[in-house]
Design brief:
Chain B: This is Formate dehydrogenase iron-sulfur subunit. The complex is a heterodimer of chains A (about 1100) and B (about 325). With about 1100 residues, chain A is an alpha/beta fold. Helix content of chain A is about 25%, strand content about 15%. Chain B is an alpha+beta fold. The chains are: A alpha/beta (about 1100), B alpha+beta (about 325). Bound molecules: iron/sulfur cluster (SF4) (2 copies). One iron/sulfur cluster (SF4) binds next to helix 2 and strand 3 of chain B.
Chain lengths: ~1100, ~325
């Protein structure tokens, strides 16, 4: 406080001025007079993008005297319009707060404390470990097939990193022969890629946030939209303000439900029954959009006469092999066509039966950009009457999904269900459109891909795909998780959804191309995309003579997902592990198993802002407390590297709109914090230096790798634009390519990710474009760059009728301009711009020439939206309701209880519980679901350490209904212990009417809700919900089932120390849990 | 210019405080019907104003862990869970006298009608009353971001002996921290329980309506961040028009419970610079139903300042509604 001078004294001024009461002008103090906000005094404003969820809100970063002084929303952004949610608003604390670490730390084997270590030494040590572990665990061949890889090293993380960083991670690790490269996309949305990809030809959401404003009805299901994507939710509110109906279907009444016009509670894990019920309603009442369905979907295609549906086989499709628990998918195919199937079965001379190892290699995810290939012309019945046409197959399949069945399975009262049907159907058609928005409430199931398929079928029947206000929006939850799928740090993919080659199927490039490329559509150019990728990675070393170094790519032999990796760690196969901004000890299913896996490693590298749980489990993890592990007996060497924040590096994020947005570096990171780009680049440089001169064939890929990037700044960060330019690709003269039509298969072009081709068109960073939204239409096409080819609405050809006219004026998006001979409209059309609606390909046409004027789904082998997937998924051509791995109920729809081909792996640390009628199921009687809160983010690494966020949700809690509280004696604000066959945790109890008991199969069932953000480290701490979940995977995408499982709940805190394991064991005993429980097909 | 500068309407509040050529009066219209309870307003406010963290306490009051406005919380989002549908006629007056926040602390829900408290567990499973099926919920989860009201007649300002609290040219009420001596007179004076002292040196703190940002033509941090435009910043007259239209629209949509709070220049504080659209009685949100400027009678007391101040402070404590310690 300054001492006031006489003349400044308010009383003096009030006596002498017009403010006689001294309450205004006369009272102004010296400080007030000189008040200047720091936004006005900043030296520069740097443009960035929020690092939390995938809404991708624009941020203005204010820098003064080399320090970041403020971060707030960028009003120019067409996505966010200047707004930020609490997390985005806390970005300043995240990036400049005291919780960030700036020094490298080292924990030696069997050590009990961290030790300081300088960055250079640490980098050298890691380089040395990578080389040694790789050499010691090299697999040149497996079962006589060349694999050229190591399973000794794995990495996890990428969705919080820039596209350019993901690109370098995948490039370096692939060249090193590391196949276990994974990121959050596996555990969040891998089933989206499989589900949307097989339905429409691309695995990204079909629409974008801003377009929701044009919806007449929005169904939010499997998503806590308002809480997990708050700023994106403004577009739902915009639609609501224009009169749209908003419906929220969810196990719990959340902040999203609070803003909905209609809230529909549902038993977790039963959405296919619910959506199947709506499909049945639409088909049986004739409310489908007939002209759309006939012309734009595969409704008219005839299915092979050998096809057997779940109707015929008690809930199984034809082709099931009980012995190895997989389907032979041959009989699912169209009449008259050979289909390249999901499991890699591509031609007649291949094994008749794919078997589990090939099935598990994740092929369905490769349909993220291009549906499965077909060879031949399917037979059609335009009248939709043929008993084997898709339309009739669909009708029969869903006939048993009646409103009564929905009520009994989902616990949704009939009237409420019919009201949803009424809203959806009356808001679809020529004049109106309905949109679906979902997130991990749909993806994270043992039938996750089929949840998304069910919504896809419904939206196709209603004619809502490719149209304004329609579509399916996959709400993604990490800043660049769409990017880390497109430029995949994923084991089963190469950039642009090119599959990773399989050891037994893809011995050479020709074989690889012939087994996956389609006859029709853009995927027919697959060879060009693959060759250009190999040129980007191996430059001059990649020649036609050596198959463009196709042999340098390591090969898969089965599943190498992050969950397979955990088991490989437990089994001593995986010895070294990189965690690049991911915290599996909290965020992945079965956290305890994650830690036990890490305790079995030789070395672990953790790159993060703070000491997350995955970095400190050896010192203070839960197993140290229970006595299962002792620090002095754990041999894992741990390196902690402090990471740079989003504002400390340049690069691009791809948001949930498939939109690439460039972030400009505001300042360099402090201390030893470095970008992941810096880390990967310099790690690669060091490894290459050490291996220089090696004559070992295994070292060729890493030595021949193109690894020269201009370095910049005082720290020597690789220039991110140079990496983006490589991703975009160039021609023989080094000129940037302007789109994937330019990519060639003769080695004359190079392109690091074909679906991003065009992002560096004309040598201009298109992702950095920032034309304010006020200066353009709602598509915001001059803000950033969206794949593919900067198109915002996918499949927009379907917004016009077969003749090329909008279905209605109200829903016009693009249309054929006869005079100009081109398509025109509000968005850049997702079609061949000058192909007239009347165009019909000649019978011998191939590739792009074969796409007819009425084929809106240009990445599909038949140009149509797939109501029925004759190939591409391994668990059935039509979504079918199965109960979750763990459920209190038998499957009322079929005798088949669970997804017969789900990946369940019963191990001592991953036991399953009895379900349905099985004895012991009553020991774990309640349904559990997990979710996010607005105030926190994923595994908490970016929020639990931030005081401004921690104080808003300061403790881990579980939500229960008053009825369940009464049944179990739980007290509001007290403690509860929740237990499964995996572990037991404690949580504060929130008793709330927002949790509703449901009436299912004649009895009441209770559900428990738990946010999954907490763990023992950080500023707010608590047990982790994922201690309870099991590793049970969707067979298409290897995503874990964490949105529906069963548990018991009791009042009071959990046992401590060794008593905890005894408590869990006791429950297992009472429930009769054995190694075979829950494992039957 | 009004004759009594301590109560009643005052259309030129800045001019009354001696600001020549004052800009129009600025304020907030907080439309709680579109609030998603995200608390971005709370965080944006803290980040901009560098307000200390306020303690890690799980309150048990729905999703509200801030609890109240205070020296370290200048925005506060209240959460009220109710068993009543969103769309419906105006609610009856049954909530008068109910302390909704205290009820929430006990884990009970504000009842739709009738007596208090609601039974924690209804007799039948499920609450829809359609017999066979549970799962038919008619729930309402109200969320509302509270803030300093920037009253037309601000008692805090009237009682401030140092001139630390002052009326800005935008018509807002701001504490000048370089002058505040921590006497604390303003704290009991506020009819809304907004202003509060920090324990360290006793100085008083509250929302400044981002006086510094507004001064350079920017909107306040909370309004800027708010994802759904629940918090709208602008010229007060224009906001009042907008708010009236919004109430009408909601009534047309069947949301009969929508009403404005703090918008009326004839009310006990001469109207608020920050006013609200609510979906229930103010008490449900922890707001006083009929706030009155506590210094309305100040002119009469002017001659006996010493005595009056003591009397006033004692009397004012009784007027606290919605403020809990
Ligand atoms: S977390 Fe998501 S919604 Fe919130 S500010 Fe960041 S990008 Fe926007
Ligand atoms: S007022 Fe706006 S920012 Fe504050 S909680 Fe409500 S929606 Fe969020």
């Amino acid at each position: 406080m300054a001492t006031p001078r006489w003349l400044d004294w308010p009383v003096f001024r009030q006596l002498t001025g017009p403010d006689r009461l001294g309450r205004g002008a006369a009272a102004v103090s010296r400080e007030t007079e000189s008040l200047r906000p720091r936004v006005a005094t900043a030296d520069k404003v740097s443009k960035s993008i929020c690092p939390y969820c995938a809404v991708g809100c624009g941020q203005n970063v204010y820098v003064q005297d080399g320090r970041v002084t403020h971060i707030e929303g960028d009003p120019d952004s067409p996505v966010s319009r200047g707004r930020l949610c609490p997390k985005g608003s806390a970005s300043l604390q995240l990036t400049t707060g005291s919780s960030r670490r700036h020094e490298v730390l080292y924990r030696r084997p069997y050590g009990t404390e961290w030790e300081p270590l300088d960055l250079e030494t640490a980098m050298d040590m890691v380089a040395e470990r990578v080389i040694r572990t790789r050499r010691e665990n090299w697999q040149e061949e497996v079962d006589g097939s060349r694999t050229r890889r190591t399973l000794g090293i794995a990495s996890l993380g990428g969705a919080t990193l820039d596209n350019e960083e993901n690109y370098l991670i995948k490039k370096l690790f692939t060249a090193l022969g590391i196949v276990q490269v994974e990121n959050q996309a596996r555990v969040c949305h891998s089933s989206t890629v499989a589900g949307l990809g097989t339905s429409f030809g691309r695995g990204g959401g079909t629409t974008y946030l801003q377009d929701l404003q044009h919806s007449d009805c929005i169904i939010i299901e499997g998503s806590n939209f308002a809480e997990a994507h708050p700023v994106g939710f403004q577009w739902v509110m915009e639609a609501k303000a224009r009169g749209a109906t908003v419906i929220h279907v969810d196990p719990r009444f959340s902040r999203t439900s609070a803003l909905a016009d209609l809230y529909v509670p549902i038993r977790a894990g039963t959405d296919i029954a619910f959506l199947g019920g709506i499909i049945n309603h639409v088909l049986s009442t004739g409310k489908y959009f007939h002209d759309y369905v006939v012309n734009y979907t595969n409704a008219a295609m005839l299915v092979h006469e050998d096809f057997q549906d779940t109707e015929d086989l008690d809930g199984l499709f034809g082709g099931f092999d009980r012995e190895d628990g997989t389907y032979d998918v041959d009989s699912w195919q169209y009449e008259g066509v050979r289909v390249a199937s999901a499991a890699g079965k591509r031609s007649v001379d291949e094994p008749r039966h794919p078997g589990r190892d090939m099935q598990s290699s994740g092929h369905p995810e490769s349909h993220g950009f291009g549906g499965p290939a077909l060879h031949g012309e399917p037979l059609r019945d335009e009248t939709l009457q043929h008993p084997r046409c898709v339309f009739q197959v669909l009708r029969r399949h869903y006939a048993r999904y009646t409103p009564e069945m929905v009520e009994q399975v989902c616990g949704i009262p009939r009237e409420k269900f019919l009201r949803v049907c009424e809203e959806i159907t009356s808001n679809s058609g020529r004049d109106r459109t309905t949109a679906f928005a979902y997130a991990v409430g749909w993806t994270q199931h043992s039938v996750g891909a089929q949840y998304i398929r069910a919504a896809s079928i419904l939206q196709l029947l209603l004619g809502n795909i490719g149209r304004p206000g329609g579509g399916i929006l996959a709400l993604r939850g990490h800043a660049s998780i769409q990017g880390s799928s497109d430029i995949p740090t994923l084991f089963d993919l190469l950039p642009g959804y090119i599959p990773m080659p399989h050891a037994h199927l893809h011995e050479d490039l020709n074989h690889f191309i012939s087994s996956d490329a389609a006859d029709k559509g853009y995927w027919a150019n697959m060879r060009a995309y693959v060759v250009s990728l190999l040129k980007a990675w191996w430059g001059p070393a990649a020649t036609e003579e050596n198959d463009y170094c196709f042999d340098y790519l390591p090969r898969l032999t089965g599943g190498h997902s992050t969950y397979d990796t955990v088991m490989a760690q437990r089994d001593g196969i995986c010895r070294g592990y990189f965690l690049l901004g991911e915290n599996p000890a909290v965020g992945s299913a079965n956290s305890r198993m994650q830690r036990l896996g890490m305790a079995n490693l030789d070395w672990l590298v953790v790159r993060d802002f703070s000491l997350i749980e995955s970095a400190t489990w050896w010192q203070d993890g839960p197993e140290i407390e229970t006595g299962e592990l002792r620090s002095t007996e754990i041999g894992t060497e741990v390196f902690f590297f402090p990471a740079a924040a989003h504002i400390e590096k340049s690069g691009s994020f791809t948001n949930t709109n498939r939109l690439l947005q460039w972030k400009h570096q505001a300042k360099e990171p402090d201390g030893e914090a470095r970008s992941d780009m810096w880390f990967i680049y310099h790690l690669g440089r060091r490894i290459r230096e050490r291996l220089a001169g090696s004559t070992e064939p295994m070292d060729r890929p890493i030595l021949d790798l193109t690894w020269d990037y201009p370095l910049e700044g005082t720290l020597g960060d690789p220039n991110a634009e140079a990496v983006l330019a490589e991703i975009n690709g160039w021609d023989a003269e080094g000129r940037p390519l302007s789109g994937y039509d330019d990519i060639r298969d003769d080695g004359s072009t190079s392109c690091g990710c074909w679906i991003y081709c065009g992002v560096y068109q004309d040598g201009v960073n298109q992702a950095a474009r920032r034309r304010p939204h006020r200066e353009q239409n709602w598509t915001g096409s001059e803000w950033g760059w969206a794949w593919p080819q900067n198109r915002r609405t996918l499949y927009s050809r379907a917004s016009a009728d077969p003749e090329g006219r909008p279905w209605s004026e109200r829903k016009a998006l693009v249309w054929w301009d006869e005079e100009a001979g081109r398509w025109t409209g509000h968005d850049s059309i997702d079609f061949i711009a000058d192909r007239p609606p009347s165009y019909r390909p000649a019978p011998e046409a191939r590739g792009v020439e074969a796409i007819s004027g009425v084929d809106p789904f240009i990445m599909q082998a038949d140009g149509k939206g797939w109501l029925y997937t004759p190939a591409g998924l391994v668990d059935g051509p039509l979504p079918t309701h199965y109960e979750p791995q763990e459920s209190p109920f038998p499957n009322l729809l079929y005798p088949q209880q669970r997804n017969p081909v789900r990946l369940a792996n019963s191990r001592e640390d991953n036991r399953y519980q009895p379900s349905g009628d099985e004895p012991g199921a009553e020991v774990y009687p309640y349904v559990v679901t997990t979710y996010r809160l607005t105030e926190h983010f994923t595994a908490g690494g970016m929020t639990r350490w931030q005081p401004y966020l921690a104080e808003l949700q300061p403790e881990f809690f579980c939500e229960v209904s008053p009825e369940l509280a009464e049944e179990r004696g739980l007290e509001h604000h007290g403690w509860a212990t929740i237990v499964t066959a995996r572990n037991a945790i404690e949580a504060r109890v929130v008793v709330t009417d927002r949790m509703t008991p449901l009436f299912v199969q004649g009895r009441t069932v209770h559900q428990i809700g738990m946010p999954y953000h907490w763990g023992p480290n950080g500023y707010t701490t608590g047990d982790s919900a994922n201690e309870l979940s099991s590793i049970t995977l969707d067979p298409n995408a290897h995503i874990q089932e964490v949105k529906a499982w069963t548990a018991d709940i009791r009042p009071g805190r959990r046992p401590r120390g060794a008593a905890l394991r005894r408590y869990v064991e006791d429950y297992r005993r009472r429930a009769g849990v054995t190694e075979t429980t829950g494992t039957e097909a | 210019m009004p004759t009594n500068q301590f109560s009643g309407p005052d259309p030129h509040v800045a001019a009354s405080a001696g600001h020549r050529d004052a800009p129009p009066r600025y304020g907030f219209f907080t439309d709680t019907s579109v609030c998603i309870g995200c608390k971005a307003c709370e965080v944006a406010c803290k980040e901009w104003n560098a307000i200390p963290e306020d303690g890690l306490e799980l309150t048990g009051m729905s999703f509200d862990n801030t609890g109240r406005l205070g020296a370290d919380s200048w925005r506060h989002v209240a959460f009220v869970e109710q068993r009543k549908p969103l769309v419906g006629p105006p609610p009856d007056e049954s909530h008068r006298g109910v302390d909704a926040l205290a009820a929430a602390a006990q884990g009970v829900t504000v009842p739709e009608q009738g007596g208090w408290p609601a039974p924690l567990v209804p007799e039948q499973p499920g609450r829809g009353g359609d017999g066979g099926s549970a799962g038919d919920t008619d729930l309402r989860w109200l969320m509302a971001s509270d803030v300093c009201k920037h009253c037309t007649h601000a008692a805090c300002l009237d009682v401030c002996p140092t001139g630390s609290l002052f009326r800005t040219e935008f018509g807002t009420v701001v504490v000048q921290e370089d002058i505040c001596n921590g006497c604390g007179y303003c704290v009991p004076a506020c009819p809304y329980g907004v202003i509060d002292q920090r324990p360290d040196d006793g100085r008083a703190w509250k929302c400044t309506l981002c006086y510094d940002r507004v001064g350079v033509g920017m909107e306040p941090a909370c309004a800027k961040a708010c994802p759904t435009d629940s918090i709208q910043f602008g010229e007060l007259d224009e906001l009042r028009e907008r708010a009236a239209a919004r109430v009408e629209q909601l009534h047309g949509d069947g949301v009969g419970s929508a009403r404005l709070y703090g918008h009326d220049p004839e009310d006990g504080v001469g109207g608020d610079g920050a006013f609200f659209l609510l979906l229930d009685e103010p008490e449900v949100y922890g707001l006083p139903p009929d706030p009155v400027v506590t210094t309305r009678d100040l002119p009469r007391m002017w001659a006996h300042v010493g005595v009056a101040a003591a009397t006033m402070l004692g009397g004012l404590a009784a007027m606290f509604v919605g403020r809990r310690s």
